[in-house]
Amino acid sequence: MILSCLDPPRNGFHPGPSREILALVAGRGFFAERSRAEVDPSLKQIIPYAVVVSGDEVFVFHRTREGAESRLHEKVSIGVGGHINPGDAPSGDVGGAVERAFERELHEELELESAYRREVVGVLNDDVEPVGQVHLGIVFRVELAGPRARVKEADNLVGGFLPCRAVSGHRDRMESWSRILQEHFWPRDRGA
Prior knowledge:
There is one protein chain. The chain is α+β, with helices and mostly antiparallel strands. Helices cover 23% and strands 34% of the residues. The strands form two sheets. Strands 1, 2, 3, 4, 5, 6, 7, 9, 10 and 12 form a ten-stranded mixed sheet that branches. A two-stranded antiparallel ribbon has the order 8-11. 35% of the residues are buried.
C-alpha cells in the first residue's frame, strides 16, 4: 500500500494517537506497483513496524545476507515489519489493511510464546536513507507478558531479547529506523 506524500512528515519518530494515523492512511492510501514505489520518493510505502518488548527488555534482530532487502543486510533492528498487500484490504478496506498486515507480518517473522497486547504509538519517517525515502513506518508497540518469542525465518533473521538499556550499544550497526526509535525510547544518555 502506498500513501501519497504531498506533504510528508519531517524526519524522525512522531508519536500520535492511532485513530488519527489510521484515518490518514484510510483516507489517502492506495495500492500501486511496488516496482515503481521502490524508486519513487513521491510515494511512501506504508510499513507496519513492530517493536516487541517485555518489561525492560526489547527483542533485537540481526538481519542476515539472505533477506530479500539487500539494503538492510547485516543490519541490527529493534523492529520488524513488512509491506501491506492488496489481500490485506478485502473489499477495499484500506483502513483495516494496516492492522491486518501488522498481524500477518508479526506472525510471519516471530513465534510469540506469550500473550501480548499491541498499540499504534506513532509514525516513523527517514528521508535520508534510500530505504526510508520510499517507506513510512506505522509503529506498533507489542508488549509481551513474558520474554518468550523466537524468530521464524532463521535464514533471514537472528534475534533475542536484550535489556533496553543495552540497545544503544548496537547503534553503529542499526538500520536507520531502529536508530531513530532507540533514541526516542531508550536514549543513549540512559544507556548502559
